[in-house]
Write a structure and sequence with these properties.
This protein is mostly beta strands. The protein contains 1 helix and 9 strands, in the order αβββββββββ. Strand 5 and strand 6 form a beta hairpin.
């Protein structure tokens, strides 16, 4: 995690020294972005990332100040070994997918910068695999054993986000975004088509 964050900082500092042409943002522009989550939503569970949080989005500029787009993200984590209060020893693997639409309001305070904020309405599709390593010693029938987890359910979700993109080339930028979703902090590359 620290290696990724340090690498990202080095890339941003390196790219900020490159002379970029002023990027003109117009109605009808299409932006495609791919990012990686730096603070996974499941960080509190102290799980190990099998697939780090990855996201992809495509946005269409309705006007210079507003965009509407599609968003998709995926991550996969594995929990550490957990000893439950009933004595069972368990492990979990979670695949987490989000797909949705997002709208954003944009500002352009300085040349080559795009500052934005908005909302996402999406659909969460979690998949949890539950592995019992050692069953509870005091329960004879596992069907009667208490459950200490909630079952994974597909459901509608909504989220807010704020972010900024810096165009180091006319059609290529780096971005960072803060908001709830597949990760609390995302960073990556964005291409203006």
């Amino acid at each position: 995690m620290n290696k990724i964050l340090c690498s990202l900082v080095l890339v941003i500092v390196s790219l900020s020294t490159i002379q970029a042409q002023f990027t003109k943002i117009e109605k009808g522009d299409v932006d495609m972005a791919a990012g990686i989550g730096l603070v996974p939503t499941f960080a509190a569970d102290k799980g190990k990332a099998i697939v780090p949080p990855l996201s992809f989005r495509i946005d269409y500029r309705i006007s210079r100040q507003f965009s509407l787009g599609a968003y998709a993200a995926f991550s996969s984590t594995e929990s550490s070994i957990i000893t439950q209060p009933n004595g069972s020893v368990e492990r979990f693997e979670t695949d987490y997918t989000i797909a949705g639409i997002r709208g954003a309001v944009h500002g352009n305070p300085r040349d080559n910068w795009d500052v934005y904020g908005g909302f996402l309405i999406g659909y969460n599709m979690p998949s949890v695999k539950h592995f019992i390593i050692t069953p509870a010693s005091d329960v004879k029938d596992l069907e009667e054993a208490p459950s200490f987890t909630r079952p994974a359910q597909n459901r509608l979700t909504y989220s807010g986000f704020v972010g900024a993109a810096y165009y180091f080339k006319k059609n290529l930028s780096v971005f960072a975004e803060l908001g709830y979703g597949i990760s609390l902090l995302n960073a990556g590359l964005q291409i203006k088509l």
